[in-house]
Design goal:
about 25% helix, about 160 residues
Length: about 160
C-alpha cells in the first residue's frame, strides 16, 4: 500500500492529479453516499459517473472502475485477473482502517494513498469525461477516463454484469 499523503480527501486527490498532468474540474455538490446519488446531485447520467469498487484478495486490494449505472461481475473480474474465490468486496471497516485519508464510500479511481486501479470497464471509455469521487462525499472530479487508464496503467475490459 502506498505511503500516506501529507494532505487528505479531495485536496490529496487534486494535488495528485496535477502532479500526474491530468486535467480535471473539481465539482462540489451536496453530500452523497453512492455513485448513483452523486450522479443525481450533479445532474449527470449514471453511465457518465465512475464508481470505484474496492476488492480484497487476502494479499492486498484491487480496484475496479465501472459506470455507476452498472454492477460489477465478480466472476468476470476473477477470470480476467486470474484470481480465485478469495477475491471479494472489501468491507467498510477494512477500507476505513487502511485508507483513513478517504471517506468510506468516496474512493477515487486514482490517488496517492490508493493501490492503482487494475481494471477500467470499457463502457467508461465511450465517454469524453466521467465524474469520479474525490475522496469525500461532497467533492468529485470530472476527468477523461483515458487518464485513469494512463495513470493507473489499468487494463480495459468488460467486467460488468449482463
Amino acid at each position: 500500500m502506498p505511503s500516506g499523503p501529507t494532505t487528505t480527501g479531495f485536496a490529496a486527490i487534486t494535488d495528485y492529479l496535477e502532479g500526474q498532468g491530468v486535467e480535471y474540474r473539481l465539482v462540489e455538490h451536496s453530500p452523497t453516499m453512492t455513485a448513483a446519488a452523486e450522479a443525481a446531485a450533479t445532474e449527470r447520467p449514471r453511465h457518465q459517473v465512475a464508481k470505484t469498487v474496492v476488492l480484497q484478495d487476502g494479499a492486498g486490494y484491487v480496484l475496479a472502475v465501472i459506470p455507476a449505472s452498472e454492477r460489477l461481475d465478480l466472476d468476470k473480474l476473477r477470470e480476467l485477473l486470474g484470481a480465485g474465490k478469495a477475491l471479494r468486496l472489501a468491507s467498510e471497516d477494512e477500507m476505513g482502517e487502511d485508507f483513513p485519508a478517504i471517506e468510506v464510500g468516496a474512493t477515487p479511481p486514482i490517488g496517492p494513498m490508493l493501490p492503482r486501479a487494475e481494471v477500467v470497464d470499457s463502457r467508461l471509455l465511450e465517454e469524453d469525461k466521467v465524474l469520479c469521487a474525490a475522496g469525500d462525499h461532497r467533492h468529485s472530479v470530472l476527468i477523461d477516463p483515458r487518464e485513469i487508464v494512463r495513470v493507473a496503467d489499468a487494463r480495459i475490459a468488460d467486467v460488468c454484469e449482463g
